[in-house]
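Hi X.,

You mentioned you wanted examples for the new student's onboarding notes, showing what a folding record looks like when two proteins sit in one file. Here is a clean example. The first protein comes first, with its sequence line followed by its structure tokens.
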Amino acid sequence: MEALLRVFWERTGVLGPIYRLAGQGLSDVDIAIKLKLTEIKVQECVAWILHFLKLTDRIELIQYASVRAIAPCPGFGNRTGRSAR
């Protein structure tokens, strides 16, 4: 089941952008507005990211992302919804 959720979120191309925005400290509502998603979808993705990275809360996610200079999260691919050049 876990693999199916990851594949779904990767196909929609939202994991990377949500990871980066959450890592910048944006709220679920702000992320949802910015990416034109529902708040529930953002919450589900953030929960999945926390689980995948074995983090306990958003503060750890922000610290994790800031150490990596908001780089693409390992394992999420580099999909942004735009074609690669």
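Then the second protein repeats the pattern, sequence line and then tokens:
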Amino acid sequence: MTESANRTSLWTSTSPAPYQYPWLSDNASCQVAVVGGGIAGAFAAYRFAKAGVDTLLVSRSPIGYGEIAGSMGLMEYDHDEGLLSLAKRIGKDRAVQAFSLCREGLEKVEEICRELPKDVHFVRRDALLCTGDKQALDGFYDEYRMRRHNGFEVELLTKEKAGELFSFPIEAGILSKNLGGEVDPYQLCCALIHRAKELGARVFENTEILSISPNRGKMVLQSDYRRKITAQRVILATGVEQDSYLNVLSSRRTAFCVATVPAASFAGYQSRCLIRDDRAPYTRVRSSADGRILIGGLDSSLIGAGGKIGGFLSARKLIDVRYRELEEALTEMFCAIPGLKGEYAFSGVQASTRDRLPVIGEHTEYPGFLFNLCCGGGGILYACLGAELLLRRYQGEDCPELSLFSPQRDTL
């Protein structure tokens, strides 16, 4: 990794802020207050505003500059967990339901992206889960069979077939047809919130919410500079910060990503599909609209989001080693692509629950709150699904899918 590479998010560095919003300078009231200017808050504000709900979104930082700016912008129906493994955790029927909901979520995200006036570079892709471990082949074949016979369009790649398509060694692969997607996550977040504003939502950035408390049947949000918001319901979409209420996250890790200069070709990279290996910490690969290749992984639980070990020791050298290892792994994978070198290197928080599913819905200890904690490889899809499910719940509809993601489910 060269010293001249930019240690900053690809997404926010290559796209100037398309929209800007005021800070909360006066008291306000609304039906639903969305706290969080990331992707979960963006989908919630968009969906509630589109339904005609008086919606207000407030973000501590500039819109899109939180966890989403450090993500790879991937949408994977199988997120961080194989179907077999998830079935062992939560049962086969519920595992299939979770995968099916993600597949539906991908279709919904695509539909929404087509409606947005700004191009957010959404592309449907095939998704490859691969292994280089001969010892893992039996379990890998079982995973393929379970997906195939539960209605997911997958193809099993043998070592020989994979060798014809990809320039790196693969013992076996599961190619999911058209079941992945990629997007510019920053542009998507900004476009959703701007569209929510056009639909009537009020949006405030650079405004921190210090406390949220019930008062006479309403929720009172106290911001910095002594301004307050009074709402009927509050949607918490603040990412891992929600765990201060819920205490459901089993791990928090820093995930690293390197984005190359635009590639001259994509030799040995069949259909520019999404790629993930089968062993944690997973390595993921995708391409971008301007022809870059992104690789992410080598997650660390030691290095915090601020680039420090244990919160106080600088980890710059260790971080640089991570970036260099990712760049070297990428050049080894795509040995037929000339001039492949990193131009951007950035990191973000990867958190997960014990069952690897999101946390969406209500908690009996926090009346008035609706939680939308979506993280991991399926974060964007679950943010979209969460907004739909929470709207249905807010409108009084029966929403049985929420039991799968409940903050009080047995599998957490």
